Amino acid sequence: MTTLTGIPDRPVRLHAVLDTPLSRWLWLVKWILVIPHYVVLLFLWIGFTLVSVIAFFAILITGRYPRPLFDYNLGVLRWSWRVAYYSYAALATDRYPPFSLGQEPDYPTRLDIAYPEHLSRGLVLVKWWLLAIPHYLVIGFFLGGFHLGWWDGGLIAVLTLIAAVILAFTEKYPKHLFDLVLGLNRWVLRVAAYVCLMTDQYPPFRLDMGGTEPAEPEPLP
Known about the structure:
Layout: E1 12-16, H1 30-33, H2 35-62, H3 67-86, E2 109-113, H4 127-131, H5 133-143, E3 146-148, E4 151-153, H6 155-170, H7 175-195
Antiparallel strand pairs: 1-2, 3-4
Helix pairs in contact: 2-3, 5-7, 6-7
């Protein structure tokens, strides 16, 4: 189902497959293995910030997000998400993430954001800070500020650590934990797309769990 603007009801789509089998102990050193990605992503995110500033003024003046700029920022989000999925936002695959801004359909997870043909010139002034405040409060709990003894991290990190410990002892990643972790990450990525000006559709306050997007309702006759 699409809206009158041609954008799907869910412009941000996250799909993921839990890889099996997973190494019982590789997660202990993934923080080292992803260092090359972190170095590259540091520079890519500098570019992301500059591109977002340019896009802000382009939307404010023309109501459009220049397609090359949109594709670059989407590529950075995709790259970052693949690294997160491999490492400590999910630990759901042992396949090393590619150094790529592309879609990489063969990788176990895929992030897609529908390109908007038109964006509100008024909303661009307020959605990334004022309108998103309620979501910032929620995802702040997901990403940080969760205290558990010596651990000071987000709910996503806590759940991923629990999954890693279970994996170490049982060689299995609990499916219900995977579904929950993906739901939390899906919420974060929807908010990220909204505050980065890539969609005008306000993110739902809804936890859509699992590796696939929920089915869209059929259009009314």
